[in-house]
Amino acid sequence: MSLDCFFSSIFISATIRRRSKIPGVMITQFVTNIPEGKSTPDFQCKPTPINTQEGHLAVFKAVVKGDPKPEVSWKRTLGSLSNKDKYKTKYEESTGEHILEIHNVSGADADTYKCYAVNEYGKAVCSATLNVTDGEFLTPMRCSVLASTNPADFRKLLRKSKVDKADGENDERFWEAMLNADGRDYEHICSEFGVTDLHLVVKKLEEKKRERAQNKSKVRKLTAFSTHQDDVIPYDDDATLKYNLQKSGRKQDFGSEGLINNMAGLRQGNVSNVDFVIKIQEIKAREREDALFECVLTHPLPKITWLGKGIELEDGEKYKITASDHKLIHRLLIRDCVQLDTGIYSAVAGGTSCSAWLVVEAESNLASGGKKIAHKTTLAVGALADIEKVAREQQMKNREEMEKILAAVKAKHAGGQVKGEMALTTGGGESEITEAAGRGKTARAVKDKPDALYPGVHFISGLSDVNAIISESAELTCRLSSEDCDGVWFRDGKQVSPTDFSVSKDGSVHTLVILRCTEEHSGKYRFEADGRKTEAMVNVKDPPRINLEDLTAFTEPVTVKTGHHAIFKANFVGFKPIKIQWYREGEELLDDASTKIEKSCGHTRLLLSRCHRKDTGEIKLKLKNEHGFTEAVSQLNVLDKPTSPQGPAEVTESSASCIEFRWRPPKDDGGSPVVSYAVERRQVGRNTWKKLGETPGAASYRDTDVEHGRRYCYRVRAATAEGVSEVMETDDMQAGTLAFPGPPAPPKVISAFDDCINLAWTTPSNTGGSRILGYILEKRKKGSNLWTVVNALDEVIKEKKYAVKDVVAGMEYEFRVTAINLSGPGESSNPSEFVFARDPKMRPKFTNKRMKSFMVVRAGNSVRITVNFEASPRPHITWLKDNAPVTKRVTVSNSDGSSQMLIPSSERSDSGIYSVLVKNLVGQETFSTEVRVTDDPKPPGPVELEENVPDTVTVIWEPSPDEKRDDRLHYLVSKLDSTKRTWTTVADRLFNNKFTICNIVHGREYHFRVYAKNDMGVSAPSESSTWGVQKKKGCAPTFIVPLKLHTAPKGYECYMSCAVKGNPAPRITWYRNHISINTNTNYYISNTCGVCSMLILRVRPKDMGEYTITAENSLGRAECTTVLSVRGQQITF
């Protein structure tokens, strides 16, 4: 290369500049060709401009990408960032953000800041401005003027800033028109008003828009504090709200409704105390899916700000921003995600915010042939399953706080009059509220703490604005603090009639339902109750709508063959005019030779003529009017013959008797699966093709009709239900060429011993075009030049491993291996590492897969424990019983890798813990097994029966003689009822000698058996005598457990109980003050097995008195008495 060419290439590579997909980012590419998989730096999220006040903290954030990972640096235009205490840079790994923090901002910091991302292939640059205000903005231009000390420079800047102003620029009508106009109309408006400098006008217009946004936010804060339509609340810089107590001679009633509206307004107007209960989480979605971010606030807000990659998002076709009815849950839905949507999204509520990544992955289903994946919405990973439940809990928590404040108010001002003034404090601001007492009452001032308020009926939740659909129902709901209060509904100041409305009341919840909305139902609705009122707007809209049946038919996929027509149609209704748009794969369709679109007031039809395979994809209909829009999606599948199979063909085997090769399936199967492949062959040097046959779907073919040394060419076609593809022709292939295999990798030593070395290797990467028949293994001693074949030449090694036993202990060897195919042996591999033929040093290790740690043996049988191990050198083995050497009755047998302990005929005394210790020079290993020698247990002793409680039997037995010798012995009790023929188990695994059986029926005979059980089996039963043969003697009723005195608070429940016995069962009667209450539904009375109880759910003063219970049968009567006292009454309001 000449010197001129060299410098020319440097110049070309250095001047490759391009713009990023992110607006405002410039990329400079250092080299002409970037290697595959590498990339220049770029910004995923660039820093945003900041407007702040002096003394505050300014933070710039950026997210970059590139391979290799770029290095990020920050610079400013008119100064340096050398002050490390003021300018701090850091990297947030969780979000991938590079951050520049500017502490204690001053006017001199107003400047343009640039962020650089650099790697070896290029750099990316973007900038953002910092505006600092202290009553006025200090722009970068002004800072440059202030920083300049040269008068000549100052005069130049003044000359640049001069503008020829026209009279129209001072006209308020000019600015009002500019503020409400679209950007395309700016030049036309300026020409009408005689304004010449459009650039300066645009700058001032941005400042006016910013001022208007600030004024709107102030107005929203003030509106939240209003409690009456005619109230005017002034606003000052100290955030102080003042109500004028004397207003034009009128007087107002200051109740708890005003407090709640005010506190709700304070909560919404001053949002400094708002925080996130649940923050937004990272989402990973695929292309064309919807992504949903959700968050829950601590206090309700009607609206929060959503940011996407530093830019504020608005509700529209791409983004859907919603809030729940209680304004605690806020959602951002991103429709039809694409990879450009990847970035950081933020939710801003007042002074707090939270951020999370959205990662959009490319579609992985490339074989779908253009078919769209089923549409779905992706939520955050790890998001809470029931976010509504969390919001309801937070709403209840807020309501409880409000009720505590009201309860404190009621307790403090039970007299009904509040004197003085009241100061409400929310966040950092204070408000003084003064208001008239009401019509005809003397004026009074209120001044007290936030809980000093007048109690009364108030709204727990007021009405909310509703956007209704025409011909559908709409519902307005509010909730009062009292269930006994009724109210009246109004629309535009007139009371509603029941013709078109359904008014209902469920406790404290009042509901108005518009059964079938029309345009006349739009307006302001008001609900009044007990002098309180709440209002909301109902906006009846008529967006485009598609009939459900037509929508179902439209969404069905349409399948046509190539060259045929495809038709899509739909009927719709909605407010006119309706804009109709058709899309195919996101690209709008317009009328042309192959596309015809019919439009009418209620119908549209799309005709796609002579469809091609490339037309396959998503068909979308979009209807839009001034009330909203709707979309319907369908799928078009165009069937065609497949494309040709993909080459080049790969030869998997080439020998004197066959040629086997394979190829790849067609890139596009035409919408139908490949049924078979047709293969043809031509001998090189001839012109005719011979049909060999078809393969059923497998992309490979084995040709066995070949001649040794001949060269052949093949061509393949793919066949589907729609037709046959074009041919794919292979290169020439020769049958029976001498192609030897390549060298395998060097053999690896698996293990080495005194008399054996185990080796393994892998198949060579180059097999020579035919299969590997076997291997030849050679060895060589260290210091020798002679290689010796380990295996015989006529006995090749079939597997890829071998155990070399022809070795001398203590000698050092190396090995190599050669592969053999149909052509013969190939090239030998490189030698392996040298290895000694000697036993390795290995710590003992047990190799049994399942070693029993517990075993039960019947007395007289043999006990056998075997362990397998690996150890080198050979270990010493010791067997122990309960940490003592085993007796001579135990036989121990040891071998190279195992050891066995045997007791030919076991006895009960042989029970214990047996341990084996395997020890050599390297270490030791121990294993223990518990052996229990036992026999069938002996039966328990005599069984006795007792009755301690009516309708029960207690079974008592003597212990089994084996109980002292066997700690695992337990008992089983079974029962035989005279009405049944089978024994049933009533208790098992009893480790005591007594058990009580319930539900014994009089008049029946019972037999009981007791068994002893252990690990070996079950003993013979011990039977009891017959129970229930003799009729039990009767007895008069007596109270085993009497009633107790009770004292219960008013409103709480009271529970009385006692126990009585008698035979026959006595009849129970309860009395209060000598009056029977057995049939009184206010008392819940029960009698279960002699336990008598009575429950009073809510104790009232009239429940006080003397309570008596009587038990009576044919042999006598008994009674028991107690007294119920009611103390303490809860104060009601």
Automatic annotation (TrEMBL):
Annotated keywords: Coiled coil, Cytoplasm, Immunoglobulin domain, Repeat
Q: Which family does it belong to?
A: Belongs to the protein kinase superfamily. CAMK Ser/Thr protein kinase family.
Describe the location of the Ig-like domain by residue ranges: 23-133, 455-539, 844-934, 1037-1125
Q: Note the InterPro entries from the entry.
A: FN3_dom, FN3_sf, Ig-like_dom, Ig-like_dom_sf, Ig-like_fold, Ig_I-set, Ig_sub, Ig_sub2
The cellular location(s) given in this protein's UniProt record come to: Cytoplasm
State the name under which the record lists this protein: Immunoglobulin like and fibronectin type III domain containing 1, tandem duplicate 2
Enumerate the spans annotated as Fibronectin type-III domain.
644-740, 743-840, 939-1032
Q: Which GO terms describe its cellular component?
A: M band
Origin superkingdom: Eukaryota
| Key word Nucleotidyltransferase present | no
The alphabetized list of GO BP terms reads:
sarcomere organization
User: Where are the annotated coiled coils located?
Assistant: 384-412
Pfam families per the UniProt record, alphabetical: fn3, I-set
Q: What is its main location?
A: cytoplasm
